[in-house]
Design goal:
It is a single chain. The chain is of the alpha/beta class and 131 residues long. The chain has one domain: Rossmann fold, CATH 3.40.50. It has a 4-stranded parallel β-sheet, with helices on both faces.
């Protein structure tokens, strides 16, 4: 007698999205210095046929009057935003890395996505840390 196949929560999520007919979900990753390029990528991915649900990082939080301007509150918020971004990666079907530079945070996001077997695309493939 064979044992029943165990389905992971991630596999259940994928199957539920398929059954519901969800459009593809892409999460945009990259340095905050590429926010304008991320906005362009968001528009391209959303309006392509078939369109996709797009998540991207919250921007402009490092401006002098921004959400991260207070060092103590800003660090706590950054941790929360990083956690939320990892949840976006888990929910997404694929990751799009924007920009011609990969910092430590983005490198960690790429590694996390790949550990989940998520496809990772790059606007600048030459910066792929695993290429």
């Amino acid at each position: 007698m064979s044992s029943p196949q165990v389905i992971t929560p991630e596999e259940q999520l994928t199957e539920a999205k398929r059954q519901l007919g969800f459009p593809g979900i892409v999460v945009i990753c990259g340095s905050m210095r590429f926010m304008a390029e991320m906005a362009e990528a968001e528009l391209r991915e959303t309006t392509a046929r078939p369109g996709k649900i797009v998540f991207k990082p919250v921007g402009e939080e490092k401006s002098p009057n921004g959400l991260l301007s207070d060092p103590v509150e800003g660090e706590a918020l950054k941790v929360r935003l990083d956690d939320l971004h990892r949840w976006r990666i888990l929910l997404a079907d694929e990751v799009l890395v924007v920009g011609d530079y990969i910092g430590d945070s983005t490198r960690g996001e790429i590694a996390y996505a790949r550990s989940l077997d998520k496809p990772v695309r790059f606007t600048h493939p030459e910066v792929d840390p695993d290429a």
